[in-house]
Structure formats: C-alpha cells, structure tokens
Design goal:
Length: 263
C-alpha cells in the first residue's frame, strides 16, 4: 500500500514543492487549497507524471472543510500517513493599526488552519496505529522577535508551541505519530500576494502594505526554492527531526532571543 500524504496550501510555493516531492517518492498525495484553478492544474500536472492524486478544495480556516478533507482522504485511500498543515498568509502593518478583520484572516488561516488539521486528523491517525507524521509549517518568524509582521509572528509562534505540545503529548501516549515543525527563512513563493485569497480583498487593497515594499520582495527573491524546502522536509521525516531549519545562519537570531529571555 502506498503512503498517503495530505498537504494544505498545496497549489503554490512550499506546499506545491512538498506535493511534487512526495509524489515523486511514490506516495499518493491529497492536495488541498482554497484556490481552485491552480489546484486543478497541479492535479493535472501530477497525474501526467503518473502520480496518484486527489484534489480537495479546502479553506483551512473552516473546520467543516478540514473535516471533509480528512473524510475524503480516508474514504479514497483508506488511511493517512503524512499531514502537512502548510497553508499560510501574511499581512503586515504596525501591530496597533491592524483591524479585527486582519487578525481574523491571518490567525484563521495560519493558526486555526493548523488547529483544525490536528483536530480532524490526529484521532484518525491514532486509530490507524501506523507510523504517521504531522508537519506544521511555522516560520523562522515563529522563533525570533523583532518589528514587523506582527499578526504573522503571533500565528507562527502559536504554531511552534502547538507543535511542541502536540509532540510531547503524543510521546507521553507512546503513539506512532511523529510531529515536525517547519521553520523556513525566505523561500521564493507567492506569499507576498497572499491577499489574493482574502475574503474581504477590496477593503484590504485600499491600504498600504509593508509586505508589498520593494525591499521585502528583493529579500524573498534571494530566498531558496520550494523544492529545497521539500528536501529538508523529506529528510526530517526520514531522520525524525522535530525543528526543521532551512537557513542554519538564522540560528544566531534564535540564540539572541533566548539569551534575551534568560537575561
Ligand atoms: N515564502 C516564505 O518565505 C515563507 C517563509 C516561512 C514560512 N512560510 C510559510 O510557508 C507556508 C506556505 O506559504 P508559501 O510561502 O508557499 O506561500 P504561497 O502563497 O505560495 O502558498 C500558500 C498557499 O496557501 C493557500 N491558501 C491561502 N489561504 C488558504 C486557506 N484559507 N485555505 C487553504 N489554502 C489557503 C494559497 O492559495 C497558496 O496556494 C505558509 O504557512 C507560510 O507562512 C513561507
């Protein structure tokens, strides 16, 4: 039986990279995304390459959608072995200027998306009694401090502690589910155009955004490719690595934060 991998936010960037890599490794892939057209295109591309693939349009901020993703996965393939809670968006302004709608959107996708994934999939994985992996996409910004990307950082620090707690509680139960938290630095993806998926996109576009500045775009363009991130994830699954770093040079920032905390 093939291993079955579910990836949210699979239609673009890091999610697409992971879907392509897992499919190339012979896994059946369930690709989920809110954007239907690129999702259908990825499904067709993967099928052309001979992959076993199921596309499920999913808004990860919606609990019923994520439950449906779990149901469709198990109905189609009978099991799930890897879950990548990866969908994410960013919206950047000084933290006191963010509207309640900004908070709801970013926390809804980045944090609640992972919460819904855990609630829908962990009980099914526990019941299966097979080796499983959950890869939650946080960010280097979930491990460090600094100005900018306030809501995003709140969400990603949340994903880190959520992943740590999940790993520790599953270990206490001697379960066969391994947890990993992916903390990339800059990766060349569509993340700076996140507002394409925002429900109240009109209101959002009328405001100026730090994430649309030239500087940030240049930094991202100098980042690594989604395929390189997928390599890190695949290797971490093989080696049982919990914190997945893509930019070792950023470890100095984590050390500086920890030293600041310790005083
Ligand atoms: N690109 C980077 O430099 C970087 C760095 C660190 C972490 N990340 C994280 O990587 C993850 C993937 O982002 P990316 O950089 O590949 O960006 P991306 O925009 O290329 O891909 C994100 C995908 O998530 C989908 N998505 C957005 N809202 C959704 C929703 N409500 N439900 C389901 N899918 C939804 C988008 O349609 C898109 O396909 C995110 O969690 C992001 O925070 C990215």
């Amino acid at each position: 039986m093939k291993s079955v991998a579910v990836i949210t936010g699979a239609a673009s960037g890091i999610g697409r990279g992971m879907a392509e890599r897992f499919a190339a490794e012979g896994m059946a892939v369930v690709i989920a995304d809110i954007e239907e057209q690129p999702l259908a295109k990825l499904e067709a591309d993967l099928r052309t390459k001979g992959a076993t693939v199921l596309a499920v349009r999913t808004d990860v901020s919606n609990a019923a959608d994520v439950e449906n993703l779990a149901v469709q996965t198990v109905d189609t393939y009978g099991a799930v072995h890897i879950l990548c809670n990866n969908a994410g968006v960013v919206c950047s302004r000084p933290i006191w200027e963010h509207t309640p709608a900004d908070w709801e959107w970013v926390l809804g996708v980045n944090l609640w998306g992972v919460i819904h994934g855990i609630r829908a999939f962990v009980p099914r994985m526990l019941k299966q009694e097979t080796v499983c992996h959950i890869v939650n996409t946080a960010s280097i910004l979930g491990l460090v401090r600094g100005p900018g990307e306030g809501i995003y950082k709140v969400s990603k620090h949340g994903v880190v502690t959520l992943s740590e707690t999940l790993a520790d509680e599953l270990a206490q139960k001697d379960s066969q589910i391994q947890v990993h938290v992916l903390c990339p630095g800059w990766v060349r993806t569509g993340i700076l155009n996140s507002s394409r998926n925002r429900p109240d996109v009109e209101a959002h576009h009328n405001r100026q955004h730090i994430t649309e500045s030239q500087n940030v775009r240049a930094e991202m363009e100098a980042g690594i490719s989604p395929a390189e991130v997928a390599d890190h994830v695949y290797n971490a699954i093989q080696t049982g690595t919990f914190y997945i770093h893509t930019h070792p040079e950023h470890k100095a920032w984590i050390r500086a934060r920890m030293e600041g905390i310790l005083g």
